[in-house]
Records
---
Amino acid sequence: MSGAKGADEPVSEAFSMKNYLISHHIKADRIISEDKAGDTAENIAYSKKYFDGKTVIVTSDFHLYRALYLAKHEGVKVEGFAAKTKVNNLLYYPNYYGHEILGLIYAFVFGKC
C-alpha cells in the first residue's frame, strides 16, 4: 500500500487501504505500507525496494496506464490490474481522464519519463 495523507484527509491513503484489507481478512503482517509518497511517481520510487521480481499494480481503471508507464520508466517489471471506477455522474470521467493526460504531460516535461 502506498500513499501519503492529503491535506484534507484524516489518515494516509496507505493506512486506509491497509485497514480495508485487514477488514477483509488479510493478515496485517502480510501488508507492506509506505505513507510518504505524494504522487504516482513517488508511490513507485518509494515502493520499488519492496518489489521482488514482477509486481502487480492495482489501481483505478483510468489511472492504470500512467501508473504502468511510470513503473516501467523506473525499471520495474510490472503488470497491472484495473479496479473499475464507480461513479454516479458520467461528468466525472472527463475530469479523471483529463487528470491522467495532464499527469503524463507533466511527467514528460519534468523528466519523469
---
Amino acid sequence: MLFRVIVSPDNIRRVDISESLCSVEHLKNILQERLELAGDILIQFEDPDFGNELCNLTDIKELPKDKAVLKILYQGAIQQRDESASSISSTPSLNDLLPSTSTSRSSTLHLTQRDSGMENTFSMRRKEIVGKQPFVSDVMNRWLALFFEEQICAEFFRVTRVELMKTFLSSLDEHSAQLIKLYRSRSGKLEKELKNLLDIFDEKTTDVLEYRKSTALRGLPLYLKEQSDGFLKTCLDTDPVDVAVQGMELGILTVVEDDVGTVNSFPTTRSIALIVEEQIVLDDISSFPTAFALLFGLIYALNLDYPKNLRYTFEVIQKVFLNLGTDCSARVQALKNSLLK
C-alpha cells in the first residue's frame, strides 16, 4: 500500500508498504522505523467519506484501499532525527561530515521506543535481509535504526543469543597480552609489518592498556598471514569522503587530525567509522576495539560474508572471542591452543 506521510510542513514522505497491515500499531511501528520517528505518535488519515478531512486512525480497516495520505502528530515531548546531516556537498571532507552524523544520532535516539519497534519487526526484517540480500543502501533506507550502536548489539543478540560487546571485550581483555607475546615471537621478512606495529606500541607511554587491545586486533591478520589492506584504513580528517572510502567494501576507517605537528608523534584520532560498500554506515565510535566488535555485529545483522582474504581473522573473532561454533580450522585451532597455554 502506498502512503503520503506528512511528518511536518517541510518533511513530507512517500512510503510504500508491501506487507499486509494487521493493526494501527503495526503501521505505527513500520512508520517509526522507516521515517526514524521517536516517541509516542498519533496517526491521522484523510477520510474520503468526509471530503478528505483528517480523522484519527483507530482501526486499520478505516484506511482507503491502495493508497492514503497520513499525518503524524506527536504526543508529549517528541524528537525526530535531524535530517539536515544528509544535505552535504558532493565532495565533503571527513572533518565536516563525521561529527555531525554522530551528534544527530545521539541527540535524537529514544531507546525504549526504538528497541520495541525493532523487536516487533525482527522476523520480517530477517526474512527480507536473508532472503533478498539487499544492498546496504537499501537496508539503510528501510531499517535505518539498524545502524545505531545499540541496535547492532541488540540485533546480534536476537540472531545469536550472545551479548556482543560484553563477550567480545571480555575475551579481548583475556587474550590481548598473550596475543602480543605471540606476535613478538614471530621473526623473518614476512613479519616486518607486525614488527612495525609492535614498535609503535612500545613507544606508547599513555593509554597503554587500551592501545594494547587495539594492537592485538590490528596484528591478528598479520599473525595469521592475511592481508588487511582495504579492511583497515587510516586517513586525514581533511580528505574527501569519496577518496577515503574508495575500495572499502567492508572495513574500519580511522580518521586522524591533519596536523603537521604530529608527523613524528601519535596523531590525534578524530573519529573511527564503519564502512560497508564504500559508504560510512556508523561513525564517531569510541575506540578501535568497539569498532571491531560493532563491525562483526553488523556482519551478522546484514547477513554479510566475511572478507575472503580475512577468513581466519574473522574465524578467530567468531569461535575464540565470541564462542560461536566449535570446529576450528587448523590455523585457528593452533592459535587457540597457544592462547590457552
